[in-house]
Each structure stands twice: as structure tokens, then as C-alpha cells.
Amino acid sequence: MLAMAMLLVFAAACGNGGSGGETGNAPAESANGAQENGGSKPAEEEAKLSGDIVIDGSSTVYPLTEAAAEEFNKEHPDVRVTVGVSGTGGGFEKFAAGEIAIADASRPIKDEEAQKAKDGGVDFIELSVAYDGLSVVINKENDWVDHLTVEELNKIFAAGSTVKTWADVREGFPAEPITLFSPGADSGTYDYFNEAILDKKGIRNDDLISFSEDDNTLVQGVAGNKGGIGYFGFAYFEENADKLKVVPIEAGNGPVEPTLETIKDGSYSPLSRPLYIYVNKAELERPEVKAFVQYYIDNIGSMAAEVGYVPLPDEQYAKEAAKIEG
């Protein structure tokens, strides 16, 4: 019996295999030292992102950026992305002052805005994100306008216009009072319309026109006025197609209505335009900002059509992504 007891003690000691005193089910290691049962934690778990990202600017680009922010937040719930709408010009002012990380823009940055950013120590990259078709809209009850020419739009909206009724626009139109609705001067949409339609003459500013940076206010204005006419991004028209009528535009090749196809192929001219985000390079050094911008460019093409925009070609997104790394 004594011999059997000694054998049992000896066997138990051999079973511990030189564990150094540790007990429990420690995972075995492979030749390279990695744990066999489950491996190491994924890098994204080890480097969990957090922080705040502040974005402001174009109301036209807002739906794109808001969509990207919402989807990004599902993957990175500890990163708070705030998206404001102060217009392209207002966004660039905040951007140049270093108040925001990213500026949404429905037009390229102007030379004086870029200089102001440089003077404020803000270096940046410009990223194209989608195409938009600036859409001219009228009231649902308007049954006389089947299309408008670029010249007629100029006649209606340009500074110094004497148009007061629809009869002043084209012979055969009724003497229905005309009421205009336009984005404000801080809007990139205003700037683009002024350049593409009005030859930079500026938009009239009298008692027949109302300005707002809020596209929803413009929608309500046109929808509530039989003689109303206004313009804003295609996405806002699609969202409110039950309240408004879109106007085909004649620019020399027959009237063309804005659609995803005509915007993409450029036949909706001259009101098709690219949209942008501008990123402060210093902010891009923050891991959460870089991750968000990369996510934006990698995914916005698939989101664009869902919110009423036209995606860029895949090769263009690849070029934009290279700018981030560069």
C-alpha cells in the first residue's frame, strides 16, 4: 500500500509537466508564439476609436454626409460625428478658422477662401464624392410650363429682371404672378446657379424673391404658391416629388429632365455638378477622422443613389482614396 501511494504521488508530479506552478486551462502556443484557441484580439478591438468630428457646410451635400455618419457610427459608436448646415460659404468660413474638421461643399473652394484657410494655417485636401443635378421646380398646379430655356431662367432670376408674371416670361403663358425662391448667398447652389445660368450677373433681390439656406423652406415656398418657382439639389426634389414638379431645361439640345441617368451622362446640362468634401490635413492625423474619411470615400458610392445622388465611377473613388493616404 505504501508503495502504491508513492507511485501515485510521483505520477501526479509528472502530470504537471513543469508548469512553473500555474494551474488551469491555459491555451497552448504554436511555434510562433500565437495562442492556438482563438488567436490574438483583432486590431480594431485593440485600437477602439473615439472622439468628436465636426462637419459643416452645404445643405446639398448634407444628406450624403449624414448617411455616411450614421453608417460609420454603427461600426464606431464611440465616435460622435456632428453635421451642420450653414451653406458652402458658411462652412468654408468655419473651415478656414479651424473650427471644423471637414467642410461639405457643392462647389469648388474659391481662391479667396483657400487663401484665408492658408493664412489661418489650414492645409487641406479636396475630395469629390458624387454628382448632383441642380433642379428647377414649380408648383404642382402649374399646368402651363412644360420646359424652360436657359435664357428664360436668366430672364426670370437675373439681377435687374422686370419679370412680374409668367406672361412676362413667354408669350402664351398666363398673367399669373410669379414668386421666386432661392438659396441664400452663402449657398454653393446659389453660386453654381449664378455661374451656370446667370453668367455671374447675380440674382435679383426684390419683393418677388425669398432666400433661405434651408432647402425644406424653399420646398414649402414653391409648394404653397401656384406661381412659385425655385431651385435646389436633385435629392430634395426626389424627396418632395409628391409636392412639386421638376422643369426640363433646354440648353440647345432639346428639353432634358434631371434624372440619375441624365445627370450621370452629362446630358442634363448645364446644371449637372460634382459635390465635394474638404478635409483639414491636421485633423486627418486623428485616427477617428482618417477612419471616417476613408469610410466615406469607400462607401459613399453605394449610398449615393439611395439619397438621390449619382455616384462617381469606381476608378474616381480609387483616386480620391489615394489622396487620403497621400
TrEMBL record:
Involved in the system for phosphate transport across the cytoplasmic membrane. Part of the ABC transporter complex PstSACB involved in phosphate import. This is Phosphate-binding protein. It comes from Paenibacillus cisolokensis. Coiled coil: none annotated. It comes from the Bacteria. It is a lipid-anchor. It is found in: Cell membrane. Belongs to the PstS family. Residues 19-48 are annotated as: Disordered. Keywords: Cell membrane, Lipoprotein, Membrane, Palmitate, Phosphate transport, Signal, Transport. Residues 43-298 form the PBP domain. The complex is composed of two ATP-binding proteins (PstB), two transmembrane proteins (PstC and PstA) and a solute-binding protein (PstS).
